[in-house]
Amino acid sequence: MNIEQDVDHLQRHLSLHLHNVLPAPLCAGMIARYEHARADGETERVTAELLRECEERLFTGELNTLLDAYFQGPVKPRWPLFEAVDSRASTNLLNTYWHLDTGTRNTHKLFVYLNPVAEHGGNTVMVDVERTKRLRQAGQLPMALDERKQDVTEALEQLGLSTEVLAYDLKAGDAVLFDPITLAHRCLPPREGRLRYTICFSIVPERAPA
Ligand SMILES: [Fe+2]
Hints:
Layout: H1 3-13, E1 15-18, H2 24-40, H3 43-58, H4 61-71, E2 75-85, E3 108-113, H5 117-120, E4 124-126, H6 129-137, H7 153-158, E5 175-178, E6 185-187, E7 196-205
Antiparallel strand pairs: 1-5, 2-7, 3-5, 3-7, 4-6
Helix pairs in contact: 1-4, 2-3
The structure holds fe (ii) ion.
């Protein structure tokens, strides 16, 4: 991890691909523990354990240095969430529509992928700051849940903007860190018969934004 380069990239793009924040074998072990727990009807207890272990492991060392440097002060990981999402994305269907999150300015999301996008196709896709602004001004990112769109290609074309979306090739143990209040985004549902296992934290600066 090159902290200076990563901070610079985050400042310019508000998103970053973090490689190998958890070792891949550990991720596979976590998935196995979750699946055992599901079979035994103990998901609640085991999920809480997995989240606690992940939090202890993640927010030390290089990642913490990066976050402290980027947010210019200490941060707090909040609202940890373990998800095993299937192709119907029934647990978080609304995230499959283009949207902006609400919340305190500067809050970022950290999605750690426990299994690779190449295995399930359930990536997190975004558009950049400028095009998000234009989409928002054009009323194409409505807050109303039943008005959200799964495809903004036409809207971007009508605005004369590139229709390219930003997505990282996330391997097991990689993470995407991004500003979900400023960048339009959606989570693609995994392919039929595949599951996407992720651990997500909201990263909130302890100091109020200037
Ligand atoms: Fe979101």
